[in-house]
Description:
The chain is an all-alpha fold. It has a domain at 25-72 and 105-135. Helix content is 61%, strand content 3%. It has five helices and two strands. The chain has helices at 2-15, 24-47, 62-69, 85-92, 110-143; strands at 16-17, 20-21. The chain has a two-stranded antiparallel sheet with strand order 1-2. A hairpin with a 2-residue loop joins strand 1 (16-17) and strand 2 (20-21). Residues 1-18 and 91-97 have low confidence and may be disordered.
Amino acid sequence: MQGRDKLADLELHLSIHGDKAVYLFDLASRHMSWLSERQAVTATNIANSDTLGYRAQDIAPFSSYIAKAGLALSTTSPAHIALSLRDAESSSRKAGGSWASSHSGNNVSIEQELMKASSSNRMMSIDASLTRTFQRMLLASVKS
């Protein structure tokens, strides 16, 4: 029981962010669910790439879900640069024009959809790796 209490205390300590709790396992799980949904939308777009008049679909960026939750990046040192989620998102994104539509009115670009699928796969691998690492860290702290 002592180890379980220690684990709960550590998880609570790591999860507090300002006045709101941020549970890292839950956040990773939600991000993986979002990635899974994005993969499904991407697969649908690819499957309908030859359908006349089909318009490519996408889901809202994950950062919009975080913004709805009221979470913000925090600085733990005065040397850190204060940056909002919106600033971080806009700085990493380049303004891009729309992909060309075909003569049939279909705007699905196989290249763009494959890039989305690859990006989602890479992010899912990173999420899984971070979750495993965080779990190992928690288990190591409970054992000591």
